[in-house]
Design goal:
Blueprint (H helix, E strand, L loop, with lengths): L1 E5 L14 H11 L8 E2 L3 E3 L4 E8 L2 E9 L6 H11 L5 H4 E11 L3 E5 L7 H10 L5 E8 L8 H4 L6 H23 L1
Parallel strand pairs: 1-5, 1-6, 6-8
Antiparallel strand pairs: 2-4, 3-4, 4-5, 7-8
Length: about 190
Amino acid sequence: MKLITGLGNPDKKHENTRHNTGFMCIDVIRDQFLYQKDICVTEWKKEKTFNSKLSFLKHGSRIVAIFQKPLTYMNNSGEAVQKLIKKYEIEDLRDNFILIHDDLDIELGKFKIQIGKSPKGHNGVNDVIQKLKTDEFMTVRVGIESRQNRKIEGEDFVLMNFSADERLVLDEVMEDIARALLAEILL
């Protein structure tokens, strides 16, 4: 069984911000499975026990993957991830855990899929690594850097909404990510 976690902030005011790219991307990936033969994808459901919204990908009665949106704020995502991994006894995180997040070090329209990559100051990723006591899992780093004015601090920029043009670029790259991960999730 795989766990695919998208990072973001749970409240409405952050819904379309750059910092919620992980949430947006996991929706696109999950949607790839909605019309697959012999696959069932459950609706998103809030699970208080895991402080998360969860959706399950099933093949018959067997759970193949869990999609997770932690309902903690970004910087406290690790606890929600840790609880799910423990409850569902997800082992070999290198092969069975995928963390998707925004990355200010990568240009908008690009992404990187890596294992064991340092979070470079991304507090949400840092918290997951600290709680799991490892960085040996797959990360999908989705580029959000598009500042025309480099005087805007990163902490402020990630909490700003995407422009309509930026969102078109993001939508395209999220489709590319979904295609890249499709086979990985079904392995």
